[in-house]
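debug: dumping io for the single-chain case to check the tokenizer round-trip. Nothing else runs in this session.
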Amino acid sequence: MSKLRVCVVDDCFETASVLCEGLKLHNYDAFAVHTGEEALEICSQEKIDLLLLDVCLPNMNGYDVCKRLKEDPKTADIAVIFVTVKGAPEDVSYGFQIGAIDYISKPYNLPMVMIRVDAALQRKLQHDRLRTQHDFFLDNSYTDYLTGLRNRRYLLERLQEEVEKAHRYNYPVSCVVFDVDEIRGLDEELGPVSLDDLLVEVAMTLRNHSRTYDILGRYDGTLFAAVLPHSPLDDAVGYATKIVREVGSTTFSDPNFPTEARLSVGIVACQNGSALGAEHVLGEAMRSLLQAKSKPDERIVAHNLKTE
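debug: decoded output
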């Protein structure tokens, strides 16, 4: 079996050399380039599994390199880990938003970098394997057939993973639960659009306003949930507010049954192991949802889970 290929992108030759030597000792095919332009060229021409990418590069910074990779279907699947001195919370959050799979701040511990690389490539291999096995996307154990989103089982499994990673790597994760709890047909004689069609439209709205690594699913009936890695409470509230307003301002029709709908939303955010697990986090989000239903205006209730 051929070795996995890792490209180190850093304008410091010494730093790039140290990382390459460490990767080779871990049985990776590693090499270095020193500019963003070189990274884009090599990624477009050769098979690269992972980029260890500095942000502070000459001419084109690492963020722009990552965005260009993710915009091109031929290179979008290349995993990216930022390795950089830019380690402020807003830098880390932005790195994940544009498609990085991990973010490591300098100065770093080289053995820990190798562990993070191993974990990232294992996740990528698993994802690639599942994607090539097309039945994964059709498997009713993980997919809601009506909306095409993931289902309750998948949500709970992935929420548990994200809560554990948030604790391990010290970043926030939020859980958002939506309920379609007010449906009104604008034509009294025709009535509203069918519930199934409305739920499909709501699912499309969720997709259109979510990041590529957010985890979306239909939990049950008219309940939807989103797991938002690297999102503190304020960001989760902003995300939910956009979706609530989008659904509230949309007239749904099929095509002759004009319908308006309204969402209620419960949100919780946690960090540093502050949650007891997926069931606990989801339960707290459901509790917030029940509180939101009693609000007269914008029905959103959110809170941070306190450290246990």
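debug: round-trip ok. The mean pLDDT is 85.
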